[in-house]
Amino acid sequence: MSVTIKGYSWFNMTNQIVVLLDKDYTETRLFLYFISMEEKKENMPSEEIKEMDSNEAMQEEAESSESKEMPEQKDVEPEQTEEKVDSEEKSVEAKSEMKKSESKSIIDKLKGLSWQMKIILFGMPLLILLTLILLITILKLDAYIFPSTLKGQVTSQQGVSLENVEICLQKECVMTDGGGFYSIEGLKYGKNTIKVQLEDYENFSAELSLKRGENIYNIQLNPSGVGNVSGMLTFEDELELTDLVISIDGAEISLEDDYTFSSDNIALGSYEFVISSPSYVDYTLSVDLEEGLNELGEFSLIPAGDVSFTPVDWLSREFINGIKFEAGKYPIVEEDGVVTIKDIVISEVSQITATPDHDDYLDNDILFRGIKQGLNDVGEYGIVREGRIVYTSNRTGNRNVYSSNYDGSDEVLLTGSKGDNYDPYLTSDGKTVYFTSTRDGVKNTYGDVSGLLYSVPVNGGNVTKVTKTEYSENNGYLGGVNYEAGKRFYTTGSYWLGTEKIVISDLDGNNLVDLVTGDDNYGSLYLSDNGKYMLFSISNYDTGSSANGIYRVNVATKGVDAVYLFEDENSAWSVAINNSSTKAMLRVYDDGSNTYDLWLMNIDGTGLAQITDSSASEDYASLSPDGKYASYMSSRDGRTDIYLNSTSTDEVKLTNDGKVTNYFWGSNGLLFYNSEDKLWIVDINNPGKAQVVTENALGPYYYGYYYWD
Predict the structure, then answer these.
(1) CA-CA distance, 549 to 234, in Å (whole number)?
(2) How many CB atoms lie within 10 A of CB 596?
(3) Reduced to 3 states, what is the DSSP secondary structure of residue 540?
């Protein structure tokens, strides 16, 4: 129990802690005393001593009563036990009443404390808190938790940003960057002196009052020594003032009505003086400014024009980043994606060429004609991707093979107008074009002129006959060809006579090999570009034959595996195999819609997944070179367009032409197609944005067209 009496705090213990006040109560001091009960009484008023003695007497009486109610342990009758329980319950009640009385007594004593003691008991924690706050404020300890930052820009009197200016504050020093900006972090708030210095400028200092958080303070330096500049413009005809700027180190100088200009109080040092205008040749002059007047003289303005344009991809119309241009002696600048060819003297030329330099785009010159004085804004200019395309056209009467850039420029006739030339293919190395031609007049077993295989360099040159025989073993026909694998293949024999087989050979017809032999009806032959696997179908005329299905043959081992079997006649065909022999595509008959749908699968027959299910059949199905997409033509909405699909993405309508007749894949996501005797190109990443390659290209009846990129 603890009681406070007249400034003393004491406890019901032998040794006590006592709090004393000075006599005049002007200062609080804390003392520790260890005193006995008798010493307490000697220092207590008589009323308090009587009350304390009364409390002690009550406590002793309670203890004595409790002792009397607890006789020695001995055997008693049940009646005696009940009396003992009643006595104990009364003792507990008495103790409880006594504790309540003691608590009430303590509260009454607290209420009776003097105001001095109340200050001690309740004001001490507040005093300690206020003292801590005062110490934090005086020592600025909160600056470590909430530091200050000073930021700003340093400029000259002309408003030019100054670089490498040293700024020091609170023992922290920084230098301004190229824009004249500085930032000092981790500062204490309050009044501080900032010091600034730069060669050729007067030292600067000022007293700042920093606040917590971010502070902005801009500084203007005065030169330690100054000079003045002046000059004059001369010109023929009327002066074109549009966008004419005169400046020294970026600070503009005003042009007076008499075409003179001047600027005063410039710090001594080296500067760049510039006269810039799209209507005249620009001047750039290095000036070492000296004290006093610096006369720059007269500047004769020469009429000129600037050509500006934004380089974009010719196909996607998207901005090309990182492309560089050359234009002879004329300077070129690029800002915010806009390329400007500057200072083209009108009296010298009216046209100019610019050459782009980029690994993925053509280096062909860009010709700008009809240049006028001032700014010639061309807007977007399409830059064509690097690559060649080959195609067939009958513009001269007979069919011939041509090559050109993707935009149709730099077109070259490759076949020399001899015979009918068609089915061109450009090899992946971009050097050789294979094509079929009737120029030698060789006839097949039916008396018709048969096409043989030839090659020619992509940019034109001597035509070479690849065929070493007349393909007499295939009735004079070339058969199927895969130029990347370097193989030709075909079926021969008679299903009815049970002598059907699949034959493969080199492109020239040599090294003939019977790849598959049997009594089945073979068809839909597709060889992968790496020459590893061939897909073929068996479709016997005996409905329900267990052999009907799609098969895979290993070209090296001649091993044959079934990858898809069906019971109905003509219910599925193999239509494509990707370059790496990992994916294949099938065309499967749908009894419900009476159409054919497309399915994708792994080359071993696993992972079979349907990718189309429409009311119309999908034709000219193919796989992209990387095997990620299936492409096909469909007329489901009454218009024929090209669609893309895969097992992991939704169907995408690639073209909106509505009159597509044929197409073929390029690399890097490019696809070419025929429509109304025109050859178009489209990037699969930009559906619906197609460009014309050439306006005279034959369609699907003249086989495919092939690419190189």
Answers:
(1) 88
(2) 22
(3) coil
CA 168 to chain CA centroid, nearest Å: 40
What percent helix, strand, coil does the chain show, rounded to 5? 15, 45, 45
The two tokens of residue 72 are 């020695």
What DSSP designation does 121 have? I
At 68, the pLDDT band (50, 70, 90 cuts) reads very low
Question: How many H helices and E strands in the chain?
Answer: 5, 52
The helix or strand, by DSSP H or E, that contains position 130, with its residue range, turns out to be: helix 124-139
Q: DSSP string of 175-224? A: E--TTSEEEEEEEPSEEEEEEEE-TTB--EEEEEEE-SEEEE--EEPPBS
Report residue 93: phi and psi, to 5°.
-65, -40
Question: CA 372 from chain center: how many Å?
Answer: 41
Q: Reduce the DSSP state of residue 286 to 3 states and report it.
A: strand
The CA–CA distances, whole Å, from 460 to 410, 437, 440, 696, 704 equal 12, 16, 19, 19, 20
Gyration radius from the chain CA atoms: 51
Q: What is the mean pLDDT of the chain?
A: 80
CB hemisphere CA count around 235 (13 angstroms): 17
- Nearest-10 Cα torsion for 546, 547, 550, 555: 150
> Which residues lie closer than 8 Å to 182 by C-beta, 6 or more apart?
151, 152, 153, 154, 165, 167, 174, 175, 176
72 phi and psi, to 5 degrees? -65, 150
Q: Is 473 or 233 the better-scoring residue by pLDDT?
A: 233
The H or E element that residue 422 is part of is strand 421-426
Q: Which of 683, 144, 603, 698 is nearest to 391 (CA)?
A: 698
- Per-residue confidence (pLDDT) for residue 174, from 0 to 100: 94
Cα distance between residue 285 and residue 294, in whole Å: 13
User: CA torsion, points 516, 520, 523, 528, in degrees to nearest 10?
Assistant: -30
Name the CA dihedral angle for 118, 124, 127, 129, rounded to a multiple of 10 degrees.
-130
> In angstroms, rounded to a whole number, what is the distance separating the alpha carbons of residues 579 and 327?
43
Phi, psi of 701 (to 5 degrees): -75, -5
The 3-state secondary structure of 372-385, one letter per residue: CCEEEEEEEEEECE
Tokens of 332: 């070129």
3-state SS record for 564-608: EECCCCCCEEEEEECCCCCEEEEEEEECCCCEEEEEEEECCCCCC
Query: What's the pLDDT band for 24 if we cut at 50, 70, 90?
Result: very low
pLDDT of 267 over the 60 cut: yes
Could you tell me how far CA 342 lies from the centroid of its own chain?
34
- Band (pLDDT 50/70/90 cuts) for residue 134 is low
Amino acid at 412: V
613 CB burial (10 A radius; 0-12, 13-18, 19+): exposed
For the whole model, what pTM was predicted? 0.64
Task: Quickly state the pLDDT bin for 395 (edges 50, 70, 90).
Answer: confident
Is the separation of the CB atoms in 528 and 534 below 8 Å? yes
